[in-house]
Automatic annotation (TrEMBL):
UniProtKB keywords: Disulfide bond, Signal, Sushi
All copies of domain C-type lectin, residue ranges: 149-250
Domain of life: Eukaryota
Protein's UniProt name: C-type lectin domain family 17, member A
CDD domains in the cross-refs: CLECT (cd00037)
Stored InterPro entries: C-type_lectin-like, C-type_lectin-like/link_sf, C-type_lectin/snaclec_domain, CTDL_fold, Sushi/SCR/CCP_sf, Sushi_SCR_CCP_dom
SMART domains: CLECT
PANTHER family in UniProt: MANNOSE, PHOSPHOLIPASE, LECTIN RECEPTOR RELATED
Domain Sushi: 5-72, 73-140
Length: 250
């Protein structure tokens, strides 16, 4: 009786966090291979294929030698970019898992102009993780000029006037009272108000002047981001316009 030389896929090595692409309980012919794929968040450290080879002594098939290991994708914090006037909040000499992030904090009077988070991402195949692309720059706030942040310009105007006067003043400067879209923008605006306008109030674009209790931004933007102070929105018809207080919090 003739017997074709094959390898059983049931004899493939067992790899933690990975699997071979051949069906179980199957015989593979000499010269054919099964490829190892690692689970999400893991990468192939060494061999990627098990080949069915002829085993001379007993004329059977044998899987090729290989080191089949799936390693967790991690990024080394010492490979984070160096930022003058700032630092990332992850410990040095440590590894961060895929999907985790380190946040750039800028020194006292400066702020992150563009990106503020470096995220650990899958690198080129068969290697560890890489930090996400970003432009990491800390720049000193200028309290009397426009400050660029994330593609827009912001300026604090230090005059005592009503919300409506402020709205008009912004308009005459081809701008509008600030709309805050998200937490990152809120952190930036708060830092500016805190550093340039300590313990005073400054108007922002949020108001419920049109319909009591329906808060809108003066530029018509539909941002739903809110970060009310203690007590939240109150005051009813008597209070329709929102100001931010210059204090050191987020
Ligand atoms: Ca109101």
């Amino acid at each position: 009786m003739c017997h074709g030389i094959t390898c059983s896929t049931n004899n493939l090595p067992i790899v933690g966090e990975g699997s071979f692409d051949c069906a179980p309980n199957t015989n593979i012919s000499i010269g054919e291979a099964c490829a190892l794929t690692c689970n999400e968040g893991f990468y192939l450290a060494y061999s990627s294929q098990a080949v069915c080879e002829e085993e001379m002594t007993n004329q059977g098939g044998l899987w090729s030698d290989g080191s089949f290991v799936c390693h967790a994708i991690k990024c080394f914090t010492n490979n984070l970019p160096t930022v003058s006037e700032g630092s990332f909040d992850c410990a040095p000499n440590s590894n961060v898992s895929m999907g985790e992030a380190c946040t750039l904090t800028c020194n006292n009077e400066s702020y992150p102009v563009y990106s503020s988070q470096a995220v650990c991402e899958a690198g080129i195949p068969n290697q560890g993780g890489v930090w996400s692309n970003g432009t990491f720059v800390c720049r000193r706030l200028n309290c009397s000029e426009w400050n660029e942040w994330n593609g827009s310009e912001y300026k604090l105007i230090s005059t005592s006037q009503t919300w409506e006067e402020s709205r008009q003043l912004c308009e005459s400067n081809s701008s509008h009272l600030v709309t805050i879209e998200n937490k990152e923008e809120n952190i930036f605006v708060r830092k500016m108000v805190w550093l340039c306008y300590q313990f005073r109030w400054t108007w922002i674009g949020l108001n419920d002047r049109t319909t009591e209790g329906i808060w809108k931004w003066s530029d018509g933007t539909v941002s739903t981001y809110r970060n009310w102070g203690v007590g939240g929105a109150s005051g009813g018809h008597a209070d329709d316009c929102v100001a931010m207080f210059g204090e050191d919090r987020q």
